[in-house]
Write a structure and sequence with these properties.
This protein has about 550 residues and is mainly α. It has 22 helices and two strands. The model has no long low-confidence stretch (mean pLDDT about 85).
Length: about 550
């Protein structure tokens, strides 16, 4: 092990020990609360700054890792990933938190189960649990890559060590462990940014970036990542607004919806720094260490050329904080769905104490899955994020929306949407050879999964309720406006699909266009298709 490895491992172990000590405090907080609520949602007693550090660690840490890796490959267009994530946080803060708090929601799968029964609870919980380690491994790979570069440890061993360390914190205090860890992570982030800026001004500096712009102008193109990929990022995050379970768990741990919203808005502002610095450091590595196949290997190689070992150690302490900030909440939220919802669906008589115990067992299972996923595909961390969103959002989006807004939704419709969306998105990726940017028929799998999810939810529910619904055009002004806007959108996108099919196909936009048509139909159905029974009762 060289001096760089010694500093990285030394600081990492020291920081880890500090967090373990802090986790003992978190465990006391979790045990002092009433039942599972203290473990799963912090007893709903968080202050706004706690939500702020939690959401910043969750989304900003994830954005930073993804933007850092992507910007090494595609340049400034990687920033769109972080911007899409920022928009997603803003919408949750402004539109959803109050309603979800009134429902006392803990998990998305729990909300689906409350509306559609035990089978839907179990299936949605299993899908949610299966996909969360994909998000965790995306950031864990960043720190594991540094261990691999600077120490004799192989990449598989580095991934395993990183994953197991995540497990240690979460076994103690659940949501309280997360808030304590995220507070410490915020300090590590600040130190990482300072060190990264020092490295930038040493080499390459602004002059180096100017040379990169001359030799590789595509790196400074706003669409170099690919128009379809950028649109998929925004579409995925906008859809994720309704099913962002880990974010909901954190924000809903606050004492009031207003305080939760305040914490989310603070995190929205902080994410700007993560996006800007992610792009800056990625471009710096591309300038100094060009031609690498993997951004997360090139970053440590770049830093080793321009910084002394202690500062490199501090930088990768920040990377470890980002891995913890995103991976730990994802693992915990996935384990909550598996231990609380799936086991609760199997045995409804379980009390909260047993569900907490099963949640801890689930953390072990998801850690093993995380290690396996990291070994399967370690060369493209951001790909795991997109696959997870394709599978989870393509399964749970429509059931969540109709659970909140459409009384005609049925249990069979929910099951068809859950399974159909999951299978179609997964199958489309398989048909495209699992490629991160080249898709079957040039259609991103997320649009296939989402389209099947919505269509199956609506069609099965309406067929099952045949004779029990009617078309009602006489609506309130707000609902009527929403319906008219969605109708206009459906006509416009339909006309575009017919007249500009070749152009849409070549640009990779045909899938998005199809999804937008289906989404417009979905809104119209929820606005204008109403139960006859409610109409009769109203009369």
């Amino acid at each position: 092990m060289n001096s760089f490895g010694a500093w990285i491992v030394g600081l990492w172990l020291t920081y880890t020990v500090v967090l373990i000590v802090l986790s003992r405090y978190a465990k006391k907080k979790a045990e002092s609360g009433a039942g599972g609520d203290s473990f799963w949602v912090g007893g709903r007693s968080f202050k706004p700054w706690m939500v702020f550090v939690c959401i910043t660690g969750l989304f900003s840490g994830s954005s930073f890792i993804s933007v850092l890796e992507l910007s090494y490959k595609v340049g400034i267009s990687a920033a769109w990933y972080g911007i899409a994530e920022m928009v997603h946080v803003l919408i949750i803060a402004l539109l959803l938190i109050a309603n979800l708090r009134r429902l006392k929601m803990v998990t998305v799968s729990g909300l689906i189960g409350d509306k559609f029964g035990r089978l839907a609870l179990g299936v949605s919980g299993a899908i949610t649990a299966f996909t969360f380690p994909m998000w965790s491994v995306a950031t864990a790979l960043a720190f594991a890559s540094a261990l691999h570069v600077y120490t004799p440890l192989s990449l598989p061993i580095s991934i395993a060590i990183t994953s197991i360390t995540l497990l240690i914190f979460l076994q103690s205090g659940g949501m309280w462990s997360i808030v304590v860890t995220q507070t410490a992570n915020s300090v590590a982030f600040a130190a990482m940014f300072i060190v990264g800026c020092i490295a930038f001004f040493i080499e390459p500096g602004f002059d180096g970036l100017a040379l990169l712009a001359t030799s590789k102008p595509a790196m400074f193109s706003a669409t170099n990542a690919g128009l379809q990929v950028i649109i998929a990022w925004f579409a995925t995050f906008l859809i994720n607004v309704f099913v962002a379970q880990a974010a909901f768990q954190m924000a809903l741990s606050c004492r009031t919806p207003e305080e939760g919203r305040k914490g989310l808005l603070m995190a929205f502002g902080a994410n700007i720094f993560f996006v800007v610095f992610g792009v800056l450091f990625g471009l710096s590595a591309a300038t100094v260490v060009p031609g690498g196949a993997r951004g997360m290997i090139a970053i440590p190689q770049y830093l080793a050329q321009v910084l002394p070992a202690p500062l490199v150690g501090v930088f990768f302490l920040g990377i470890w904080a980002a891995a913890l900030g995103w991976g730990a909440p994802c693992q915990f939220s996935g384990a909550t769905s598996l231990g609380r919802d799936v086991m609760g669906a199997i045995n409804p008589s379980l009390n909260d104490e047993r569900k907490v115990l099963y949640t801890k067992y689930a953390l072990v299972a998801l850690t093993l899955e995380m290690i396996l996923l990291g070994l399967m595909r370690s060369e493209n961390a951001s790909w795991w994020n997109v696959l997870a969103w394709t599978l989870r959002n393509g399964s749970t989006f429509a059931p969540v929306v109709v659970a909140l807004a459409w009384p005609l939704a049925t249990r069979r419709g929910a099951m068809a949407a859950l399974l159909g969306g999951f299978i179609s998105g997964l199958a489309w990726y398989a048909l495209g050879g699992w490629d991160p940017v080249k898709f079957f028929f040039n259609i991103h799998p997320v649009f296939i999964g989402m389209t099947f999810n919505i269509l199956l939810m609506v069609l099965v529910s309406m067929v099952e309720n045949a004779g029990q619904w009617k078309l009602k055009l006489d609506q309130s002004s707000g609902r009527k406006t929403l319906g008219l806007v969605s109708t206009a959108a459906m006509i416009i996108f339909g006309f575009t699909a017919i007249t500009q099919f070749n152009w849409l196909f070549q640009k990779g936009l045909i899938g998005l266009n199809l999804f937008l048509i289906v989404a417009a139909i979905f809104v119209n159905v929820m606005v204008f298709i109403v139960p006859i029974k409610s109409e009769q009762q109203a009369a």
